[in-house]
What does this fold into?
Amino acid sequence: MIAAYASQRNIEVVRTYIDEGRSGLTIIGRDGLKKLIADVQSGSPDFNCILVYDVSRWGRFQDTDESAFYEYICKRAGISVHYCAEEFENDGSLASVVLKSLSRVDAADFSRKLSRRVFVSHCHFVTLGFWRGGPPGYGFRRQTVDEVGKPRVLLLPGEQKHFKLDRVVLVPGPKSEIDVVQRIFADFASRKLTRTEIANKLNAEGIFNAMGRPWMMQTIDDVLRNEKYVGHNVFNRRSSKLMQKPIENPPDMWIRRNNSFEPIVSQALFDKAQRVLSDLDHGRKLSDLEILSKLKALWRRKGHLSMRLLERAKDLPDWTVYARRFGSLMKAYQQIGFEPKPRYRYVETGLKIDAIIRATAEGIISNLKAGGGTSFLPELYLLTAETNLTIAIAVAWSVSDGTVAGRRSRRWEVRKLRYSRSDFVLVIRMDAANSETQDYFLVPTPNLPPTQGRRKLRVSDRIFGQFRHDDLGSVLHALREKLRQRRES
It folds into this structure.
């Protein structure tokens, strides 16, 4: 369709961007779209128009403004967008705007309807006793059966069934894995080892999980809670529709078929493990006052509190109990009078950073009004000056590294950098107490060092000294100069 469209209009196709087999619900994993936007924003692409099959090819974003945003980036760079399979010309007329908006809504609705159909299909197969898909997990293997239930072949990781009418069931795996699963349940339910202790023992013996990775407390917990180990097929315990945040569903929403698979753990041992987990999860035997007393006692013994300490403490309920009882772990801390160090006050810090960024953006906009077309997108902390210069705004927060050679050492970490494809990044560096702005760095995005393998981008005079500005007035002067250069070019 795209080739025919180009041929009819004497357009030469010089490059193709494609995301094969990728969900259009989010830009995550969309390397083709990311590369297209990066080339457009480079300032020197070797093309002047983009041919798109239809509106849905930007993505089936549930927020329809997101696909409009990517098209806007292209149009702002002077690159026209053509929809080859749509029944309207993308010429900016009222009719095209309305039809394009309807197409975006229809693209999003397609994903919602498809999600419902897939969910119903999964529920149906689970009630018939078949495995709905995904890795089988430690101790199991996937096996295909024909339409009358006769076993065919074992599937290797990544393999799919060979015949359309075949179905997939779970069967016990190698004896070595079955022994490990039974040992996990026995160590937890009968020998009273914690999930972390079990994981550490397995790792020390060179026994890895189903993914070939070291065991962790959470992977041990997943094994202990999964009813497939007693042969039950359970679906919809957790759900994440349209790539939204996963939620825990109540038991009456679960879809199940008991005795679907051959069990590798006895029901009695499984039930015993669930009783221990229940005590950890809900602290049903302890009142609010009792679990707070245990938390306060841990604070007295250790002198401080942290998530790691709570996970290691054998006489405390799981940290989720505190979050469930009091609304959050921080609120439980407040109940006993414990104040975490400022660096761990994530919510409070996040709100303060948000206010600093918004105030800075407002200051820039009010001083650049004469140029016109300046706007701020708070969702991305992205400021656009005169419609063609984009500046992502972030904050460099002061973090203590402790005392080194008798002096307190500090570093500055960039937080809240939500958009990394802008022309510039304006970094607001705070003072050592994170109470006042110390200075600014207006850094061209290509000059940012790669952050792969690191959690946060660090800022220092050694790295970004050439881009440093003492105050916002100096930043505004630099922005006006860059806008002038753009107008002249």
Observations:
- The radius of gyration is 28 Å.
- The CA atoms of residues 189 and 273 lie 5 Å apart.
- The chain has a mean pLDDT of 83.
